[in-house]
């Protein structure tokens, strides 16, 4: 029996060089809009039939021009300058050495999605090396109208100069009715060589879902599907039950 999620979903994946997370395979009708501005990033081969749009424009809260810092480790490249002094505390600091600074055109997520003909977004995953808050600010209309889930890389240490940290991002997304469901932390050990230690909290992947209140019917359907996709069957059942009670009254 095909037990995949049948609700059509649109995923926006900003910083997609690592490929789409495997649990999204459970969605039968999936559209993925990927943003990866670093041309060095591998273009993963897909062995599953998601509809896919790949865009290379760096994203920010407004359109304009900015410096893009290309680092030794491709995944560390950012619109913020790496905090090399901080990385000296931890193993492999040379990964954030800047190889090149490129002047690039940036745009908002809202503008880029409109240009691509994307009118509805259910879920946004952000891994943009410090630029997550700025990108969210450039997508307010989608946060208000359709998005029901967010997966955001948030920093607890200033890995880049002048970047927002977790508290800034958390306060912003909560203002749109999102609630924090999970933090998957990454901790770094001090010293040139990793040691068997618990280390220091550096960053985490934060999962946010809408509270379930004051949602349109399509948003509720998407929220139930995404809650199940992320292993929150209890929350999905709660949203479904409140929907049924609302229909009875």
Percentage beta strand:
25-35%
Q: Termini distance?
A: 35 Å
- Summed over residues and divided by their number, the pLDDT gives a mean of 92
User: Using only CA atoms, what is the Rg?
Assistant: 19 Å
User: What is the fourth-level CATH superfamily?
Assistant: Vaccinia Virus protein VP39
Q: Care to describe what's here?
A:
With 249 residues, the protein is of the alpha/beta class. The chain has a single domain, classed as Vaccinia Virus protein VP39 (Rossmann fold, 3-Layer(aba) Sandwich), CATH 3.40.50. The chain is built from seven helices and nine strands; from the N terminus they run E-E-E-E-H-E-H-E-H-H-E-H-E-E-H-H. The chain has a seven-stranded mixed β-sheet with strand order 3-2-1-6-7-9-8. Strands 4-5 form a two-stranded antiparallel sheet. Helix 6 runs antiparallel to helix 7. The longest helix has 16 residues. 35% of the residues are buried.
Features:
alpha/beta; globular; Rossmann fold; 249 residues; two-stranded antiparallel sheet; 24% helix
Secondary-structure blueprint:
Layout: E1 9-14, E2 30-35, E3 51-55, E4 64-71, H1 84-87, E5 98-106, H2 109-115, E6 123-126, H3 132-137, H4 140-145, E7 149-155, H5 166-174, E8 178-188, E9 200-210, H6 217-229, H7 233-248
Parallel strand pairs: 1-2, 1-6, 2-3, 6-7
Antiparallel strand pairs: 4-5, 7-9, 8-9
Give a brief rundown of this model.
This protein is an alpha/beta fold and 249 residues long. It has a single domain, classed as Vaccinia Virus protein VP39 (Rossmann fold, 3-Layer(aba) Sandwich), CATH 3.40.50.150.
């Amino acid at each position: 029996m095909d037990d995949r999620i049948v609700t059509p979903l649109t995923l926006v994946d900003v910083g997609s060089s690592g490929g789409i997370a495997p649990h999204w395979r459970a969605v039968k009708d999936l559209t993925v809009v990927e943003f990866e501005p670093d041309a060095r990033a591998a273009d993963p081969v897909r062995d599953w039939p998601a509809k896919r749009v790949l865009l290379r424009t760096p994203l920010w809260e407004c359109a304009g021009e900015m410096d893009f810092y290309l680092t030794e480790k491709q995944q560390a490249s950012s619109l913020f300058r790496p905090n090399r002094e901080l990385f000296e505390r931890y193993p492999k600091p040379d990964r954030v050495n800047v190889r090149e600074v490129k002047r690039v055109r940036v745009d908002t997520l809202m503008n880029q999605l409109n240009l691509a003909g994307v009118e509805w977004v259910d879920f946004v995953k952000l891994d943009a090396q410090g630029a997550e808050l700025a990108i969210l600010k450039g997508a307010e209309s989608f946060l208000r109208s359709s998005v029901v889930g967010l997966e955001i890389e948030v920093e607890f240490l200033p890995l880049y100069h002048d970047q927002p940290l977790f508290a800034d991002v958390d306060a912003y997304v909560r203002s749109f009715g999102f609630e924090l469901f999970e933090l998957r932390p990454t901790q770094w050990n001090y010293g040139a060589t990793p040691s068997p230690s618990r280390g220091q909290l550096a960053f985490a992947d934060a999962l946010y879902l809408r509270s379930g209140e004051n949602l349109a019917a399509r948003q509720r359907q998407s929220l139930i599907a995404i809650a199940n996709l992320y292993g929150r069957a209890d929350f999905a059942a709660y949203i479904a039950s409140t929907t049924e009670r609302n229909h009875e009254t």
